[in-house]
Predict the 3D structure of the following.
Amino acid sequence: MFGSMEQLYIDRGMGRQIDLDEAASILKEAQESGLVTQPGTAQNPAGMCNCCGDCCGVLISIKEHPRPAELVCSNYFAMVDRELCAGCETCLERCQMEAIDMDEDNIAVVNRDRCIGCGLCVISCSTEAMRLVPKPQIEHMTPPATSAEQMRIIARNRGLI
């Protein structure tokens, strides 16, 4: 949690303050463990989670959508260098969105409609065949300024406002 949310958690005994080095270490460990880092969808998020697609309601819901990439504010997607791919299938196991398949040549292929740009496949690729690349400018998304604005956008899109 960040800012006022951080203070709320500390005041209620549900968390503690950490420094930047510890935060970076926690993020590295989470990603190595196969967890998807999910900051709040705002320019100044109140917090972030590190979750797996087995028990996180948010990731489960996103995964069930036919095009998860449409639901996530990410300006990146994974791409495979066919020359470097060893066909080990580690990326298939790591991908929480089932966005990667193997083609007839046993080379990984990324389905851009399913890729949320989390980078788990990149950090686990022993041959460095996977990398995150920016989406074309026309596809770039700017997160809402605040979490409250995000909730208004969601409500408006659902016809509740």
The longest strand covers residues 76-80.
